[in-house]
Amino acid sequence: MDAQPQHLTPSTPDGARDKEWFSQLFAEYNRQIARYIYRRTTHQDVEDLVADTFATAWRKRAEIPAGFELQWLYRTANFLLANHNRKQRPLLLESFPEIASDQDPAAVTVEDEALRKAFYALSERDRRILLLAAWEGLNAAEIAEVEGISAGAAAVALSRARARFATASANVDV
Predict the structure, then answer these.
(1) 74, 137 contact by CB (below 8 A)
(2) To 5 degrees, how large is the angle CA 81–CA 53–CA 161?
């Protein structure tokens, strides 16, 4: 995993977040945000969603808490992905699956059928929490920032998601 600085240093003496600060933010986190989005949407949309994430960061740079830049970017990317998914082009009725699916493309790469079944037996929130921990390498405090909850609630959510996954894995029939 890429090294994460504790915080980005504003490049002006008065602490303003200028173009140099933004360039450093982009250089530090562009790949991580691109990978995060890549695993959650169609590949042709990644570039636009990454650009939208960083454009939002530029517009709201004064609101990004120091030391939590990456978490803020993950959360913003998550909101943009949700909006993007709601705006998808309508498909012909013949192309709709028999059963609706909210599968995360990142999880599709799981090869083991039993693990995949156990993973999809979890709630969407549990899957998201587990992916933030496993795929993105975030700890409970960082997950809390992404999810907009307290660190304690994130630690509990992560622990419970892991326990539910273990139970689901033990009970899967293949």
Answers:
(1) no
(2) 50
Residues making up the chain, counted from first to last: 174
Residue ranges for the chain with pLDDT beneath 50: 1-6, 12, 92-93, 95-96, 105, 109
Range list for CATH 1.10.1740.10 in the chain: 1-89
Distances (CA, A) of 145 to 71, 76, 83, 89, 138: 6, 11, 19, 31, 10
- For residues 113 and 107, is the Cβ–Cβ distance under 8 A? no
How far CA 56 is from CA of 49, 74, 79, 90, 148, in Å, comes to: 10, 12, 11, 27, 17
- Alpha carbons 61 and 78: distance in angstroms, whole number: 17
Of 53, 57, 56, 29, the C-alpha closest to 41 is 53
Return the DSSP state at 87. T
- For domain 1-89, say whether CATH 1.10.10.350 is its number: no
* Residue (of 24, 28, 30) closest to 11 by Cα position: 24
Output the CATH code of domain 102-174. 1.10.10.10
